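chain below, 313 aa
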Amino acid sequence: MDDATDVLKPISPETVLREIAQSIPEFCRKNMVIIGSLAVGYHYFGSQRTMIVRTKDADCLLSPRVEALSAGVAVTEKLFEENWEFRKDEKWSKPGDVNTPDDELPAVRLHPPNSREWFLELLTVPESPTDRAQRWIRLKTRYGHFGLCSFGFLLLANYEPILTSFGIYIARPEMMALANLLEHPEIRPETMSGLIAGREIKRSNKDLGRVLAIARLEVELDEDALMRWPKLWLDALKKRFPSEWIDLARQIGAGIRALLASEPDLDEALYTCVQGLLASRPPTVDMLRIVGKRLLQDAIEPLEASAEEAGSS
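prediction:
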């Protein structure tokens, strides 16, 4: 779930995606959407092997929910058969078993053969649009019991995903940005469970920093690209959250405005960008601030206006 530790490794998104696609059962590829830094990096850098992102995990979203359990079992067992290894940590030295409570099961976190540079983690979408708490469902495999986690606005991550040449999907960067904006309507004090390159970082700043990183990469490709986001966001909110979309759209810009208004928080966001998605082309804090203002003007404010108009009619 992208809980950063002190060691974020430089990896090639294309290389990692290829290895995942080649390792999982072919019939499960349609159920898998790569999300997070890996998906963003692949979308913008594509086959540019010299372009890297710094991350430690490859978050893989299994959907639809009704097929996630069977797909999760199949993927996990196939990876173990291919000599992928369980990622041990201070809490879990081995997979769970029948006696392990659901909320204490280890996630499916597996290192590829002969590598500790990164690991794959399996997630799934929430059971309903209104269920945003962290939930765990049990995966019973031949190699032990694991937990498949869902939380927050992951329902947006599998909205119109992009099919790669490897046969698996990546989430749309603008959808990941939308999910993070909705997840953080304010800067909360909670910090990441681990350090990011030696520094303690608020989770809100890390996730909102990712939004700014995505926006910067987007405008580097096309100056007017952010102006196309409001329509896609609006369509996604209406389909995924039909009874709540107006309220959600109204709050979409609160977190970014709070971030831009706080120098210490913006500095933390910049640090995570430089250590992560923008490692190959690090921006200055002024560059990041300009991107934030563009994001507000071109994408956030038009969506807020649509929500206000719908709410008053």
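The longest strand covers residues 135-141. The two ends are 40 Å apart (CA to CA).
thats it, cya
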